[in-house]
Every structure is written in C-alpha cells, then in structure tokens.
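Example (one chain per record):
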Amino acid sequence: MIEALRANEAAKGKKADDYFNCNASVVSYSTGYPVLDYYLGYTVNVFNDKNEFVESYPSLGITAGSFIMFIGKPSTSKTATAVSIAANIVRKFDNGTVFHFDLEQAMNYTRIQALTRLPMQEMKNGKYILRQQNHTLEDIKATIVRVYNEKMSNPDKYKYKTGKLNEFNEEIELFEPTVMLIDSIACITMQMEDGSAKSLEKMEEIASQTERMRLTGEIGRFFNEIMPMLRAANITVIGINQIKVNPNMGIIKQPAQVLGLGVNEAVPGKLLNLVA
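Predicted structure:
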C-alpha cells in the first residue's frame, strides 16, 4: 500500500505533499558543554538497503529544531548558559542567527560578546539579534512564522549537507539553524494596540486572575502552534523560566525539607523529631 501511495504522490510533481515519505532524519548541535552533550546524546546506527550494518556514530548535543526549557532559581546562570548554547549552535553557519527576546531587559551586547566571543561586527550584521522592544507574544510568533516562511520558500539558499547519514544510509540535509531565545516565559505579555484608554484598560485587566489565566492559555496555544514549524525549518526555541518561592508555605522549613525531602515525603520513626 505504501508503495502505491508514494507513487501517487510522485505523480503530482511539485504539488506532492510527501505525506508517505520518511522525514525524521535530524542531527544534533554541540552545546559547548561536553557533559551536557553526552547526556543528551545517542548513537545512530546506519544500515544499507540489504539490511547490513554500515556504521554507527554518536549524535551529541541538542537535536535540531527542538523546544528546550531552562528552569531554575534566580541567579543560577540560566540566561548566561542559554546565551552561550544558542551562540554555539549557530556559530559556524553563514545564515545561522540567534533571536534573543530579552523580556526582562537585563542583557546587553557587551555581556553577550563576553559570553559568546562572537565578533561585535558579526552580531551587528545579524548573527545575534537582541530584541528588547517588539517582544510580545504576537511579535515572537510573527518572527518565527516569517523565519519559517523564508526558509521554506528558499531551500536552495538555506539548506546545507550535514555530512551525516541517517539510519537508512542516506545523507541528511537540513536548513541552517536558527535559535529563538525567550527570557523569560513568565514575562510574556499580550500586545497592546496603542496608548488609548481602551488599551490602558486592557493593561489593567491583565493584572486580574482571570486575565492571567487567559494569558497562560494563549502561551500554551502559542507553543502548540509553533511546534510543527520548528523541526521543519530547523528553528530551536530556548525558553527560560524561574522557580519562585511559594508565599503560602511560610518562612520556617518543615522537618522533611531540612532532610532534603519533598513537602509530601517523610522518614519513618523518630528521626523527624530529632530534626525538629
């Protein structure tokens, strides 16, 4: 059946949708941190048409077109690490670009240059785009869609031969990588039309519980909508989020927390009494 379906698609020529061809071949990009590369890596086994083993090689680092979330407490180098990794992914590609949506407005090019060692002129020419304005949820989505459309419309310009083989002994060809860095997810806002009274009223409404829940739903919908574009156009999204202290838990730690346990965990016996 698959052979017949593929033949029907091939007969359509340029209008073919390629629904019945394999398209799961990807490569990984080094993060610049060997321990992390090996932790995320896996071994690719290559076989020929006769089902004979050809070779195996390690695929180390972040898989092309992934969505990654950095989550941690404040001041734990989340942004610094993400900036370094983003630059390492695109560094060697002529059309590789980082779009850094600095929603917290805490970054500058001097610090980025110190973290990445990218030449300042190279960043100015488009290797690293730092965005501290026009970075609402709608702006981020529009940027991803436009990058996706540009790549898909000009494959000859942006595709490259990776030099790697997939499991079927075929050379892997991908679009040059793009990285979207969102710092941070907690600071994403919806777009305001202008400075009118209506917009100001909308801004005040966002502070309410209902509007915050609606915004959360919009963010979830945003990620669902962009996911199909990421792998197809080799766009990696790195989101940053923070762990915050729950004010309802109180200042004094529970005995279980002192022992390094979760708030819903306990140790049998009198050990907790000794800690308390």
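Caption: The chain has one domain: 2-244.
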